[in-house]
Amino acid sequence: MASVQRSASSGSDGGDPSLATVDERKRKRMLSNRESARRSRMKKQKQMEDLTNETSRLQMANSQLLQSISAKEQAYVAIESANNILRAQVMELTDRLRSLNSVLQIIEEVSGFSVDIPEIPDPLMNTWQLHHQMQPIVASADLFLS
């Protein structure tokens, strides 16, 4: 029994050299595995931190985009409202012009004088007549971010 204990405990203290090298390899492998596991944990922690930072950055960007969209929607509603007012004014002025033209026609018929009665273009049927050359519209992502 004493010889069994001696051979089991003599791994690195001068016993069987092949057992000593096996024990040394096991010890080195364990240290290597521990170091590899430590590096793996550190890498995973770094990845988590990076993903957390990226999430925060994307949430901020999303918030800014939502604010920008909201501002654009409010501006659109305001412009649409102003546009509706202008359309109503155009219709009112067109009706007035028709009334004045009918008065001019009556004057022309009664007096016999030739009166120049302008034609009333339908502003809702004609396309916009711009007095300058058409320029291409260039859009960029920066336009929507401000």
Automatic annotation (TrEMBL):
- For this UniProt record, give its keywords in alphabetical order, as a comma-separated list: DNA-binding, Nucleus, Transcription, Transcription regulation
UniProt entry tagged with the keyword Transcription regulation: yes
GO CC terms of this entry: nucleus
Disordered: annotated segments:
1-52
Protein's GO biological process: positive regulation of DNA-templated transcription
Presence of keyword DNA-binding: yes
User: Boundaries of each BZIP domain copy?
Assistant: 23-70
Cellular localisation: Nucleus
- Taking the record's annotation, the residue ranges forming a coiled coil are none
- Where does this chain mainly localize? nucleus
* GO MF entries: DNA-binding transcription factor activity; protein heterodimerization activity; transcription cis-regulatory region binding
Write down the superkingdom of origin: Eukaryota
Q: Name one Pfam family in it.
A: bZIP_2
**What is the protein's name according to its record?**
BZIP domain-containing protein
Identify the species of origin.
Carya illinoinensis
